[in-house]
Design a protein that fits this description.
Layout lengths: L11 H12 L9 E5 L14 H4 L7 E2 L10 E8 L2 E9 L20 E8 L5 E6 L5 E7 L3 E3 L8 E7 L2 E9 H7 L9 E12 L2 E9 L17 E5 L2
Parallel strand pairs: 1-3, 1-13
Antiparallel strand pairs: 2-12, 3-4, 4-10, 5-6, 5-11, 6-7, 7-8, 9-10, 11-12, 11-13
Length: 239
């Protein structure tokens, strides 16, 4: 979610909320989501037809950011890991997809439907962002609080695939352990922890300037903003 930029000025209520959101993660680390261990071959092709997608329980509790009481269209996200790296997938219901084929301009993704996964290694000053649209366009970048973006970053060896489906679109991705170590993830074995944010931008053809922002963790800000610490949650690699 890089396209909606908030300029901080001396607005007491908003500033207080933002500083609070930046300061902590709302989930107790002891309650970290267990990332299932992948024990079978998985093809990054966007099909989501392997048995693991039936066996592993997906994240489904996405909230519409800054719109209490509003429900978004169903979204599912899977996180899995093995010695090779981190595997993730999304299935998004969408009857009016807004997307375009990949181009040389990563920022073209800013105006498209997409799913997003942000990774924040423990004790790192940087977090790392992947935004993937239904037709395969990708925007990857590193960032620091607050909204200091580095578009030159890309995860070496990563693979992504997107595919339109009968009721929306699906995305799959893989980040190799070598790339995770380069980000600052010190350990990649059972029990290892990091912070992850899961998001979705849902654009409507009739209202291109008013997308719905969905988030796994809602920081309760006046305006949607995923570039605060409180939208991340701890995850732990399961045995």
């Amino acid at each position: 979610m890089q396209s909606t930029i908030v300029t901080l000025r001396y607005v007491p209520v908003f500033a207080a909320l933002l500083l609070t959101a930046c300061a902590h993660s709302p989930r107790d680390p002891a309650m970290a989501l267990r990332v299932a261990r992948l024990t079978e071959p998985l093809q990054v092709d966007g099909r989501l037809d392997e048995p693991c997608y039936q066996r592993v329980i997906p994240v489904t509790d996405f909230k519409v950011a800054s719109r209490p009481g509003v429900e978004g269209r169903p979204t599912r996200a899977w996180l899995q890991w093995n010695e090779a790296g981190l595997w993730f997938a999304f299935a998004a219901q969408d009857s009016g997809i807004v997307a375009a084929p990949p181009t040389g301009d990563e920022h073209a993704v800013d105006a498209q439907d997409r799913v997003e996964i942000f990774l924040w290694p423990e004790e790192s000053q940087k977090y790392f962002c992947l935004e993937i649209a239904p037709d395969g366009a990708v925007h990857d970048y590193a960032a620091r609080i607050y909204r200091r973006f580095d578009d030159s970053w890309t995860p070496a060896g990563a693979r992504f695939a997107a595919r339109r489906t009968a009721d929306g679109y699906a995305v799959e991705g893989f980040i190799p352990a070598t790339a995770l170590h380069a980000m600052g993830v010190r350990s990649w074995r059972p029990g290892a922890r990091l912070q992850i944010g899961l998001y979705r931008a849902d654009f409507r053809p009739a209202a291109p300037d008013d997308p719905m922002w969905l988030t796994w963790v809602e920081p309760d800000l006046p305006k949607p903003d995923f570039h605060v610490r409180a939208t991340f949650a701890p995850v732990r690699l399961a045995p």
